[in-house]
């Protein structure tokens, strides 16, 4: 999941809420990793990136109480654009490109 935000004011409050959301998501089954990132060129642009075992794991995670209380309100403030992506190819440093089949039916 890739959620982008534009935070023009009260950056500290946003970061605190994003950390709480990331912690709630990280506690859910199927969570693989997550990052809160910030643009180097336009520092008001932020991104919350999470990686999941599957789309189903992510969707089930959204039903958790802690996620509903911390992550869902934050995610609702993200830019209205596609945010769910599936990995179709990846490469480790110095490694070969490995491909995956799509989960889309």
TrEMBL record:
<protein>
    <recommendedName>
        <fullName>ABM domain-containing protein</fullName>
    </recommendedName>
</protein>
<dbReference type="InterPro" id="IPR007138">
    <property type="entry name" value="ABM_dom"/>
</dbReference>
<dbReference type="InterPro" id="IPR011008">
    <property type="entry name" value="Dimeric_a/b-barrel"/>
</dbReference>
<feature type="domain" description="ABM">
    <location>
        <begin position="8"/>
        <end position="62"/>
    </location>
</feature>
<dbReference type="Pfam" id="PF03992">
    <property type="entry name" value="ABM"/>
</dbReference>
């Amino acid at each position: 999941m890739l959620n982008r935000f534009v935070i023009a004011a009260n950056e500290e409050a946003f970061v605190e809420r994003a950390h709480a959301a990331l912690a709630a998501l990280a506690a859910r089954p199927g969570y693989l990793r997550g990052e809160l990132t910030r643009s180097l060129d336009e520092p008001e642009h932020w991104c919350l990136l999470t990686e999941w075992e599957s789309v189903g794991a992510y969707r089930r995670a959204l039903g958790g109480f802690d996620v509903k209380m911390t992550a869902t309100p934050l995610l609702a403030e993200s830019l209205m654009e596609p945010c769910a992506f599936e990995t179709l190819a990846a490469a480790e440093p110095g490694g070969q490109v490995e491909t995956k089949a799509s989960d889309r039916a």
